[in-house]
C-alpha cells in the first residue's frame, strides 16, 4: 500500500489541554502542518517549539485551514468559541472531539450545518498517551463526506470508527462506554477500600481483580443477548436469587470492616426489587428492565 504523504496536509487544533496537545503533537510528528490555538497561550508556545504554527486567536486558527479539530473541557466552551465565528467557519469542516451529550452534539451540528459547515462529532475512547496508536478508538458521527475527506488525518490519531450521520451517535457510544467504565471503577474502589480496611494492599489485590474482571467480561455477550431478546432466563448459570443472597455477604463484610456501602446499596435495592417481582430465576441482566422504567422501579 502506498504511504500517505502528510507534508501537504493542514489542520488547526483549538484547545491544547492534555488531549488537544496529544492530538496536535501526533499530527506534527507525522509531518502535518498544524496550526494551534489555546486560551492560555503558554501551551501553544510549548507546541510551537515542536513545529506547530501558533495562531493568536481561535478565529485566526480556524481561518487558516480547511479543517479544524476542537477539543475543550465542555461544549459550553465550544459554543462560546464557535458561534461568534459563523463567517469564518462557512465552507469549512469542524471536528469536535470534546466530551458532551448527544443533544449538545445535535444542537451544534444543526447550528453549524445551517451556516454551511461540515460537522463531525467524535468520542475519544483513549487517554492522551494512547493517541497515535491503534488502541485509541475514536467514534465519529455526523457528515459522512467529511469523514471520508479527512479519514487519512483522523487515522493518524488512532482507530477511527465512523458510525452514522446522526451527529449525536458518537457521543451516545462514548457516554455508554464511560458508564461501563465508571461501574468498573466503582467496584475497584470499593474492593480496594475493603482490602485496605483489613490490612491488604491494593497493589496485592489488583492483578487478581484484573484477571477476575477479564474473566467475567466473557458473560457480557450472553447478557446482551438476554437484554436484546427480553429472555432473561436464556442460558442462565448464576440466577439472581442466588446473587441477591450472596450480595448480602458483600454488604455485611463491608459493614463489619467499617467501610461505606454507599456505592453498593443501589444495586442491592435493584436486586431485591427484581426478586420480589418474581425474577429470582432470571440472570442479572433482568435489572435492565428496572433501569429502563425508573417510575415503575421506584414504586
Ligand atoms: N484526558 C483524558 O483522559 C480524556 C480522554 C477522553 C476524552 N477526554 C475529553 O477531551 C476533552 C479535553 O480534555 P483534556 O484532557 O484536554 O482536558 P484539560 O487538560 O483539562 O484541558 C481543557 C482544555 O479546554 C480549554 N478550555 C476550557 N474552558 C475553556 C473556555 N471557556 N474557552 C476556551 N478554552 C477553554 C482549556 O484551556 P486552558 O485552561 O488551557 O486555557 C484546555 O485547553 C474533554 O472534553 C474531555 O472530557 C479527555
Descriptive overview:
It is a single chain. By secondary structure, the chain is of the alpha/beta class. The chain has helices at residues 18-29, 41-48, 58-64, 75-82, 86-89, 102-114, 144-149, 151-157, 169-197, 202-216, 220-229, 240-256, 265-276, 287-292, 294-297, and strands at 10-14, 33-37, 53-54, 67-70, 93-96, 118-125, 137-142, 159-162. The chain has an eight-stranded mixed beta sheet with strand order 3-2-1-4-5-6-7-8, sandwiched between helices. α6 links the parallel β5 and β6 (118-125). α9 (169-197) crosses α10 (202-216) and α12 (240-256) packs antiparallel against α13 (265-276). The longest helix has 29 residues, at 169-197. The relative contact order is 0.08. The model has no long low-confidence stretch (mean pLDDT 96). Bound molecules: ligand FVH. Ligand FVH is lined by residues 15-20, 38-40, 43, 71-73, 77, 80-81, 98-99, 124, 127-128.
Helix and strand arrangement:
Layout: E1 10-14, H1 18-29, E2 33-37, H2 41-48, E3 53-54, H3 58-64, E4 67-70, H4 75-82, H5 86-89, E5 93-96, H6 102-114, E6 118-125, E7 137-142, H7 144-149, H8 151-157, E8 159-162, H9 169-197, H10 202-216, H11 220-229, H12 240-256, H13 265-276, H14 287-292, H15 294-297
Parallel strand pairs: 1-2, 1-4, 2-3, 4-5, 5-6, 7-8
Antiparallel strand pairs: 6-7
Helix pairs in contact: 9-10, 12-13
The structure holds ligand FVH.
The site of ligand FVH has 21 residues, from helix 1 and helix 4.
